[in-house]
Structures are given as structure tokens and as C-alpha cells.
Amino acid sequence: MGGVTPDEIGERVQTQGMSAHGFDEAIRRNAGHLPEVLLVPGEQNARDNRRRGRWPGRLPATLISVPDCAYHNVLHALWSRGELRPFLARLMEPGAVSQG
To answer: What is the domain partition of the chain in residue ranges?
Structure first.
């Protein structure tokens, strides 16, 4: 669940002074031509849970929470648990993402 939303640009030390002006307009201009974003937060990660509502509605997005995961880096957590390959394989199945 990465990526700073335009709303957060001014709040973060790393991006202070940067502007996201025009982001939402660019999204509107390209509606219907944007790829779907896959948001994969750790189900128990407080930071990701605060952010989970910021991207959907702004971009075409699907949210898939990783159960029993408190880490921000869900790919590493899945790899450590031996679950990364099956998770990625499941995502590659036809219709897997749109079905949740």
C-alpha cells in the first residue's frame, strides 16, 4: 500500500514544497484509459489502514488485505511466510482481481 496521495504531499517531510497540483485533473482527463491499481495492505498495519480509503475513488483500484499481517511490506511478509508465490499466482488468474 504505497504511494503518497496528493493530499499527503504537504504533510510529509520528504515532499514538503512539492505540489500535486493538476493530479486529479490528469486523472479525470484520462478516465477510462487508466490501469487498475492493486492496493495490498497488511490487514493489521495501522499506517496502511489509515491510507486505505485515499486511493479508491481517485483511481480505478481494488483493495486486497493480507490477513494476519502487521507489516507495511506485505510482499516480504508473504515471502517470509512462504506465501508469495501462491499469492501472486492467484492474482494472475483471469478475473482474480476484479472478483476480489
So the answer is: 6-99
